[in-house]
Amino acid sequence: MADVSRPWFKEPWKFKESIVVSAATVLAGFIIQFAAGGHGIPQPHLPVNAIALAVFAAAVIGTGIALKSNPLVKWLGSIPLGLCLILAVAILSLIGGVVPQDTAPAGSLAAGFGFNRIFSSWPFALTVLFFLLNLGLGLSWKLVPFKMQNLQFILFHAGFWIALGCGIFGSTDLQRLVVPIDEGKASNVGLTMESEEPHQLPFSIFLHDFSLEEYTPNVLLFDPATEEQTNFEARKGATATWKGNNAELVDFLPSALPTEDGSLKPADPSAGVPFAKVRITSDGHSEESWVGITNPARKPEPVKIGRLFVLLWPGNPKSFRSAVTVQDDKGHTVMANLEVNKPVDFNGWKLYQMGYDEKAGRQSKLSLIEVIHDPWLPAVYTGFFMIMAANVLFFWNGIKRSKVS
Amino acid sequence: MAIDFNTAAIAAMALWAAGAILGIFSVKNAGLKLPGIILSLVGSAIIAGYIALYWNFLGRPPLRTLGETRLWYAALIPIVGFIVEFRWKIGWLKYYCMSLASFFLIINLIHPEVFDKTLMPALQSPWFVPHVVVYLVGYVFLAAASTAASHNVYLELRSKNNDAGVTVAHYLSMLGFVFLTFGLIFGALWAKEAWGHYWTWDPKETWAFLSWLAYLAYLHANSYKIDRSKLQWYLALSFIVLLVCWFGVNYLPSSQNSVHTYTKG
Fold first, then answer.
1. Structural domain count of chain B
2. What domain range is B247 assigned to?
3. ipTM above 0.85, yes or no
4. Hey, are the CB atoms on A316 and B120 less than 8 Å from each other?
């Protein structure tokens, strides 16, 4: 920053020019965004976006190599410009990190400038494109002539370029659809998240069974006099001492249904609900009762035992899965169990267990399956793995080799 | 549980305090140095032992809630201070580190966790431990870098020459950045498996990206030979962005749609 005495825009350009040009880029982006009535950037699909990105990459690297000593190109690939663009990306991301995304009403000022869709807005796109130019030029100078000692630099910067470039350019080709299916039925229609617009899928999914496992429920003790509460895990034989009351879980049925005469009968986990028999002893006096949840809304029902209200608080979902058969037109068939964190691949699509009818809980007969197609994923992952390889090299080379001064 | 949290936390803080006092007096009496180091290490070992017992008690790694992650920071941050002293013969960092660790323990003493053993399905993944652990290690290094940089600023204001301190802050931030990068990418790879896409600009992701950019900028400014004493201010303050990412995000208006807000407390 020691170029205070240098006149504006006199070569070599440094921080002053970088700040002005970066700010102008962001400003121009907001003006275009506003002029376009809040509409984001145009979004070409494959193969147009891939060709555009390849041409851009070739042009950047070619320019960097051919015009290495041109003062303007030197500045475009310089660290001062890079720092200002990092700051610009950071400021735009800050807007996206504070303003709720996708919620501002159309016509509001925030929506007009794209604040609520900052990551698909003009200012963000222009700044990232400019940043890719800067990063690509810097990279080109380390690529040619190639030296082994630059490998860590090349892997990190090229990896970042590829991940960022492919992630942004390829985002238009990402298809995310939700397929709601009832047990015993098949569907080949996916809905978009925002508008629930139906899309025909190149395969159909048949749902054999949806099942949900819950954690052990909790027994909650509530003192109406002081409005205080405590809880303990609902296991047979569990005890708790609280405010002079001894609570004991005398009996526990993980899955049962009430019969007509009021007694309880064990039932299949997909149909029954948990019940706990709780005994409260206070001042030598004991009282006990069954506590459970029988209403369709699955709201815990308080039961008065002694001077306390006792509730059985349902356990959180532990796991849920859908047994499905996926089939395409050509008869290619896959049977699979979909579970959270365990997606299944089918013809370039990934199928995810997404949700279920939460009101019905473990009685849900409906499964929500998300299907995702992202042709750019291998390219983005290549970038990720190059960055990680650079990190590994950092440790391999040892910290001493990375210069401090 | 064989020991409860309050006992473990108070014992650890007492040992760190005793170790620090012996360390300060060891300037005049070198014989106190070793006992000081041993007491401080036992303090950290108590927290480490508590984590092991707590892990066993919960039946899952205690890495889910903010309170649980604070335990790890309390155990690990002083270790960084001890390593720096051992490797670079710089003694002052460990005092800052032990104070910071005590601060985390005090937060946990004031806000005792509600015991909740359940782990939601999205967190039941082989990525859970590596993702959180690399971030933890990264944050620990960057917390130490920030304290080192603050100390450098203080020395700079008193016009003291402090090249070694500047170097330590730089090494720590570089190490921290590498771990931050791993954390970010592990998070992206996990998100693809759990939520279907590697990057959705979820508020926590956005803030993780922002903190990564902050340190990316530091490293480039440093490589451009910007006056390194000025950069100490920047490095000391960068940690604020990390703090927002770490526990500030839950309070931001943008967090209403976040998938990361299970980390309450």
1. 1
2. 119-265
3. yes
4. yes
